[in-house]
Design goal:
Elements (H helix, E strand, L loop, with lengths): L2 H33 L2 H37 L1
Helix pairs in contact: 1-2
Length: 75
């Protein structure tokens, strides 16, 4: 296994961990949204959007590491 492949694998694992933490945060926000109202609901909606955007960014980053690992394996 090349060092590039190892690095890509480590980074991908980090991304998966971070995304799992964001999923837990999103679940917490969703549970709070059920009974929220007013300014708190607006804050939670904004928080939810931020978490989802962070998850999308991690998806994109993860895809780049998967591509690196695929290229490394095909050599």
């Amino acid at each position: 296994m090349s060092s590039d492949h190892s690095h890509a694998l480590q980074e991908y694992a980090r991304i998966v961990r971070e995304k799992n933490l964001l999923k837990l945060r999103l679940l917490s926000v969703d549970k709070q949204l059920v009974s929220a109202g007013g300014a708190w609901k607006s804050f939670l909606d904004e928080t939810r959007l931020s978490v989802m955007e962070a998850m999308l960014a991690l998806d994109e980053e993860g895809e780049s590491y998967l591509l690196l690992m695929r290229k490394d394996c095909s050599v």
